[in-house]
What does this fold into?
Amino acid sequence: MERRFAGLDVALSGDTVEVDPDTLEAAVAAYRDTWARVGAIVAEADLDDPCQDAGPPGPANLRWVLGHLLEETARHAGHADILRELIDGRTGR
It folds into this structure.
C-alpha cells in the first residue's frame, strides 16, 4: 500500500519476522503501526486514485488495493484459525 499506491520508498518485508523482540505483542504493535500509516494515506485519497507504482499485475486503483488487502487479511486470519483449531481442538465461533 505505502509503496504501490502512495509511491513511498519503504522497505519491503520478506518471509522473516522483522520485529525485535520476536513476540506476539511486537508483531501486533507493528501491524497496528502499519495500519495507522495506511489509514492516513487512505483518508487523503479517493477510491479511484491510481497507484503510483503500477508494477505487476499492472495498473490498479485504491479500490483494488483495499479489496486485495481485505482478501489477504481474511485468508491469513483463516489460516491462523485453522492452526488454533489444530492446537486446541475447539471449532466454531
